[in-house]
Specification:
heterotrimer, A alpha/beta, B mainly alpha, C mainly alpha, A: alpha/beta, 6-stranded mixed β-sheet, 11 strands, B: mainly alpha, 74% helix, flat
Chain lengths: 319, 151, 503
């Protein structure tokens, strides 16, 4: 008898779960972005979710909320500990940022706290210098750093974010010591420091650097990725310039949910969201904004997270 | 009366100052606490000065809280605490606001409680206000507030 | 003179309609306690998806201008600043309102806003390349000294006792350190999970100003007489205009300080009003009237916070660097239409750039007209009974604090700070220096640490922070400001003792 009741209960719960997935979503969805309004992540998140309300996508709009602070830690901490795992609270992830922060410690999340849904973009880190800088290639930068160990200042968006990872990799590959200056206020503040000449160079997002180069304010010396970017076909990668820097610092942006979200909801999202990203209108707006797209499914993202965690553990072990 | 209130008030501030100073000098990493230490030290000195003045009865500024004021305030403050710290999340923003608004209005509205007209007027004001809030936040600005009961 | 050519576009029916909507909507949103300009603009972004680039920007630009000015309404009538920019307006504005001069204060604030705002936009039109260089001249060391300059204002700001003013400032500086340290990522003073994100400045602002007002209204109890919040006497616009021109010093200092400070990326908007207020007070021949309902205070503060709007867009439009959160949101509005600020904007999309800038110019005038109309209605707002007003302000505070980042934690922080502030105010502490500390703390700290790191790698801290023309000028201003305050304090002390002796 007990078994029967238990069985019935299980069946009911299964039914309820299925019914929930069927109806999902029945109200607007929130997506948390752990950077400020107007930043690259926020801007792209708003574009890729703008068609969520269409019938062929989720049928319900996605509202963006910002919880900026401490390089993303504030938002992800909130997401891991306080967000409801009901499928109505999504978040944007930035890899390698949150993985690097969880390895470094002092936060309440790790890669296991979240379930990836899909990836929409990949924004490589680039090395920029002011337009009037004497440096014209990474070789010039490395040569200067060798002569003046620890004196070459370069800015980035914070500690244990993609920019910092790229900085560490460059230093390691070239075997030099430079002075990485993390700025408060994200990539925009780091870029301002470069343009104003407060620092001699900087790591920044490809999308922002591309814009600054178009405006004639900076020179881009190298891309920290495996291939050249479509936006910058003339800028060589770090590897082409003899620096062994892979794509570990590439800023992958995508959508995730908290760990205990119902499996049916995750599956539904994993099936619809990549299609939503592939929408023509989204692609056009992203292209216009200078933001490189890179759509990946849930399984591909899982693999990418695992691979990143591995390389980052090795890279950060010495710190 | 006034002097003891001043001692209590500045004493509390002084206690916070001591706590802040203690935390900033004991926590690690010390680079991250450089600024808090600086601030805490100045905080402690100023709070100590104020506390000392209060103890000696030299505090001139600020008139404290009189008994009538306090008694007047207590019911409103109680409704506010329940509304902010419990009802808003547990009942949903709009339901909690409707209830809280109506109670506050009834507590502080000078119109006589015995007349039916007063109650209708209060209910009407509450309804209009909640409708405006719903229109502004939910419809126009599409802010998604917690909703448990009703909207 | 290229901009004149594009004036026609502003007056095309759809554009003008959007400009009107943005202005009126902005005024209402700005006047609502708890909605800041950044939030109003961010909340409008989805609307611009459906519009063309120019039209979207007109809507955003108009909303930006008028929310800043609209914040003065609640600052004056309710002593609740709509945004950090309006804090200085509460100091004299609310005192004026209490004396029955609410309408006059509002008229002055809108006229001063328009005068300052138009000057700021004209600077943007004519001096953009020059201003861009100036904006870049401020590095970490200069921003650090600028923040310190702000700190020197704390002691003398709206506080009867200098020690308590400084102590309030210290509390603000301490509150600002709560949360994750931005550069190192260390956790500081997080004794409750709601504080994980630090104290949000807008939520704190709502709590520190609005909640004490609510409690003050509660404390008056269930009363029939004097149930209105304040009495408002009628005041003619002409008289207000004359008054404005009788105070050229306040208007001039406000406008110029606002334009200069507004230009500096990352600092500007929030402290322009307070610094201008303080400077005007120091140069005024009637300084003892400040803080007691003096029109110069309102004029200086409002002229400054609208003068800052134009210059604050310079780094964005020329260098593609958003200098303020609101500018960052505007950047998003441009990028979404594939327009890159910078030379691309002025060379390839001059219609967008100039129509946007022109619309801000026209927007200032419209804002002023509607604002003056609103000032006429102030008497009605003020006739709302205390009981209703207390409940309205409380509910708006909760909604406003929540909607900043959809977080209950912010609502709890807002309420705790507010209740604490009410009792502190009863003992002679005040909210304005506390908020100033809250704003300046992170600026001073981040720039000191960042500057220190650059200095350690290059020339050393001493020469980095203490040499160079701009550093020396700023340090001189800081020293002068402290010396002046100390001298005034001593003088007033001698004065009061004499008075006491006579009494």
């Amino acid at each position: 008898m007990k078994k029967l009741i238990a069985g019935a209960a299980m069946a009911l719960m299964g039914l309820a779960g299925a019914a929930m997935a069927e109806d999902y979503p029945e109200r607007p969805i929130m997506m948390m972005v752990s950077y400020g309004a107007g930043g690259a992540t926020d801007f792209q998140a708003r574009i890729v979710t703008m068609t969520a309300g269409n019938e062929d996508a989720l049928g319900m709009p996605i509202a963006i909320i910002n919880k900026p602070g401490a390089g993303g830690r504030v938002g992800w901490n909130w997401f891991a500990t306080q967000a409801d795992a009901d499928g109505y609270t999504l978040a944007a992830y930035n890899v390698p940022h949150f993985i690097a922060q969880s390895i470094k410690g002092g936060v309440q999340y790790s890669a296991e706290s979240f379930e990836p849904i899909a990836n929409w973009g990949a924004d490589p880190a680039v090395f920029v210098v002011a337009a009037d800088s004497p440096f014209n290639s990474m070789a010039d930068v490395v040569a200067h750093a060798k002569e003046n160990p620890g004196k070459l200042t370069f800015s980035g968006a914070g500690l244990f974010v993609g920019h910092h990872i790229a900085a560490l990799q460059i230093e390691k590959a070239a075997g030099v010591k430079m002075a990485y200056i993390p700025t408060k206020g994200g990539g925009a503040a780091a870029m301002k420091a470069v343009i104003a000449g407060e620092v001699m160079g900087g790591i920044n997002n490809l999308s922002d650097a591309f814009r600054a180069q178009e405006a004639g304010n900076v020179k881009i010396l190298g891309v920290a990725d495996l291939q050249r970017s479509d936006f910058l076909p003339d800028v060589p990668t770090m590897q082409e310039q003899g620096l062994d820097v892979d794509n570990s610092s590439v800023n992958f942006r995508g959508v995730m949910v908290p760990k205990d979200t119902p499996q049916e909801v995750i599956e539904k999202l994993a099936a619809t969201v990549p299609q939503m990203f592939a929408n023509d209108r989204v692609a056009k707006k992203m292209e216009a904004g200078g933001s490189p797209m890179h759509i990946m499914t849930r399984d591909e993202v899982k693999e990418m997270w695992a691979a990143r965690e591995q390389t980052l553990k090795e890279l950060l072990a010495g710190l | 009366m006034n002097r003891s209130q001043h001692i209590l008030g500045s004493g509390l501030v002084f206690a916070v100052g001591i706590w802040v100073t203690w935390v900033s000098y004991t926590q690690q990493p010390s680079e991250a606490f450089l600024f808090p230490r600086l601030i805490a030290s100045v905080f402690l000195v100023l709070a100590g000065w104020t506390f000392g003045k209060a103890v000696m009865g030299l505090s001139k500024v600020g008139s404290g809280v009189s008994r009538t004021m306090f008694l007047n305030m207590v019911p409103g403050l109680a409704v506010m605490l329940v509304y902010v710290f419990w009802a808003a999340k547990a009942l949903g923003f709009y339901t909690a606001t409707a209830i809280g608004f109506f109670i506050l209005l009834s507590l502080y509205d000078p119109a006589p409680h015995s007349e039916g007209k007063t109650w209708i007027r209060r209910a009407l004001i509450t309804a209009v206000f909640v409708a405006v809030m719903y229109g502004l936040f939910a419809k126009l600005l599409s802010v998604y507030t917690p909703r448990e009961i009703l909207f | 003179m290229e901009f004149i050519y594009y004036f026609g576009d502003v007056f095309s029916p759809l554009s003008f309609l959007l400009l009107l909507c943005g202005t009126i909507g902005g005024l209402i949103l700005g006047a609502t306690p708890g909605l800041s300009p950044t939030m109003a603009v961010a909340l409008l972004i989805p609307f611009t998806f459906h519009l063309e680039a120019v039209q979207g920007l007109i809507l955003l630009g108009a909303a930006y201008t008028s929310t800043v000015a609209g914040g003065a309404v609640s600052a004056i009538l309710l002593k609740i600043p709509g945004a950090p920019a309006n804090i200085a307006t509460t100091l004299d504005g609310h005192k004026m309102a209490k004396q029955g001069q609410g309408a006059k204060a509002l008229q002055l604030s809108f006229l001063a806003s328009a005068a300052g705002g138009i000057f700021g936009v004209l600077l943007l039109i004519f001096l953009t390349p020059l201003l861009a260089e100036w904006a870049l001249a401020f590095g970490p060391s200069h921003l650090f000294w600028l923040a310190i300059l702000g700190v020197t204002v704390i002691g003398s700001l709206d506080s009867a006792s200098v020690v308590k003013g400084l102590l309030s400032g210290c509390m603000g500086l301490w509150l600002a350190t709560i949360g994750f340290d931005d550069i190192m990522g260390a956790q500081r003073f997080i004794f409750h999970p709601s504080l994980g994100g630090g104290i949000n400045i807008i939520a704190a602002l709502i709590g520190l100003f609005a909640i004490p007002q609510v409690l003050t209204m509660f404390a008056k109890g269930r009363r029939t007489t004097g149930a209105e919040v304040i009495e408002v006497q009628k005041h003619s616009v002409l008289d207000a205009t004359r008054e404005l021109f009788r105070r050229p010093r306040a208007l001039g200092i406000g406008t110029i300080t606002g334009s200069i400070i507004g230009l500096i990326p990352g600092v500007g908007g929030q402290i322009a009003g307070l610094v201008a207020y303080d400077q005007t007070k120091k140069f005024s021949s009637e300084k003892e009237k400040f803080g007691k309902g003096h029109s110069e205070g309102v004029i200086a503060a409002e002229a400054a916070n609208n003068a800052m709007v134009g210059p604050s867009l310079v780094p964005l439009l020329t260098l593609s660097i958003p200098g303020s959160p609101t500018a960052a949101v505007l950047l998003g509005g441009l990028l979404i239409h594939g327009i890159f600020p910078g030379s691309d904007l002025f060379d390839n999309h001059p219609d967008v750039a100039w129509t946007f800038i022109n619309s801000m110019l026209v927007g200032q005038v419209l804002m002023c007209l509607f604002g003056l109309y609103v000032a006429g209605l102030a008497a009605r707002v003020a006739q709302v009974p205390q009981s209703v007003m207390a409940a309205i302000v409380l509910a708006l505070s909760v909604f406003g604090a929540y909607s900043v980042q959809s977080s209950m934690g912010d609502v709890y922080v807002m309420a705790c700070l507010g209740i604490g502030m009410y009792f502190l105010e009863r003992f002679g502490f005040s909210a304005a220096p506390l908020v100033l500390g809250l704003i300046l703390g992170p600026i001073a700290e981040a720039n000191f640490i960042q500057g220190g790191m650059i200095a350690d790698a290059t020339v050393g801290k001493a020469s980095y922070f203490l040499t160079g023309g701009l550093n020396i000028i700023l340090i001189a201003v800081v020293v002068a400001s402290i010396a002046y305050s100390a001298w005034m304090e001593l003088r007033s002390r001698r004065y009061t003792t004499k008075e006491e002796a006579q009494a």
